[in-house]
Amino acid sequence: MDPSKQETNQKKASKTMAKKETEEFQFVVYNTMTQQKEVFKPKTPGKVRMYVCGVTAYDFSHLGHARAAVSFDVLYRYLKHLGYEVTYVRNFTDVDDKIIRRANETGEDPISLSDRYCKEYNIDMSDLQCLSPTHEPRVSGHMEQIKDMITQIINKDFGYVVDGDLFFAVDKFPNYGKLSGQKLENNRAGERVAVDSRKRNSSDFALWKAAKLGEPSWDSPWGPGRPGWHIECSAMSAHYLSFKFDIHGGGLDLIFPHHENEIAQSCAACEESDVSYWLHNGHVTNNNEKMSKSLGNFFTIRQITERYHPLALRYFLINAHYRSPLNYSVVQLEGASDAIFYIYQTLKDCQDALLQLQEEIPNDGKPAWTTPDVKECISKLRNEFQVKMSDDLSSYTNWSLSRNIEVGKQFVDHAKEEATKATKIIGNSIP
């Protein structure tokens, strides 16, 4: 081969390799367990297994629930964008003290009441353009898996029975608190369930609750009853994803005690239990106080979407980094509504410009939109987007809005310019 040609080919190969390297990004996520950002590496190359704690379905869901759903929907979409095959599991809690109390108030069957609100939740998720998870398991449909896991825990001496109730003995699990850094004495006893003096340790939590009059119950080796709150997620995540999977997500308020208890249960049932990355989204606040049903300071998703387009709400929810708090305000919702209008107006302008470029330019036979300037503009936007998103899904909203509109306007201007050139050649005119 001619030395000059060989040198030219080497330079081309070098440029191609450099370009490839700049287009490949390491996806980095913040792991609550290690309290630092880590390069994401799934346990099985090319495949991601992700479990996210869903809602306790006894009422219409509020903005806090919406933020968790949208945050992990963005993650789900980005993982798919990166080419991963994603198994996404998000549960429904349809057996719970709160559901039973609401059903008693309304005179409904608890499972029927919860089923109704599960359906309402999915309507809200559809409005917010959240993709459906791969699996949406419910507690009531996984009693066998739950009982099997409790049996494993009891057989390994991590639990004990009192009057038909089963409790997890946190003293038996030396690593309890490793996710949250909380000490046993800080466990919020009495927050979700009443304090029980029968426990060996106030931090011990229920695995199985003996049946009570007027409550749904299932047969078990320990007598009729129903599962405690925490065991459901351990059992269902193991059932769909195995004891070893990649991502476990949820709101910040679930870190302790829920996720801490999940880790204890899962590791007690299977020593090899392991979740690679724990991800948690920040709260939605109202006057800088966490928005929740228990505080009575919440707005339901439905209340907001009755006044604003659902995509405006989605934009509002991703207007801050997913780990940061997001304070509710009408001003921000109005701004989100305006932003959505500008995004779709830009898309419409781009579509109108493309309609003028359907004919090929006679002098080179290529569509005008594939000119080098346009390709460079698109490539630059794609790279900027991926750099931002690959850093723990950073700054995707404010940045993407301004950049997409900026690039969209550049594209429209360029498209009109090229269309003008083309139509002059073929003898037409653009109004």
UniProtKB/TrEMBL annotation:
Q: Listed GO molecular functions?
A: ATP binding; cysteine-tRNA ligase activity; metal ion binding
Its GO CC terms are: cytoplasm
Cofactor list:
Zn(2+)
**UniProt xrefs under SUPFAM superfamilies:** Nucleotidylyl transferase (SSF52374)
Mind listing the GO biological process terms from this record?
A: cysteinyl-tRNA aminoacylation
Q: What is this protein called?
A: cysteine--tRNA ligase
Q: Indicate the enzyme's highest-level EC class.
A: ligase
HAMAP family according to UniProt: Cys_tRNA_synth
Q: Please give the CDD domains that the UniProt record associates with this protein.
A: CysRS_core
- EC number assigned by the record: 6.1.1.16
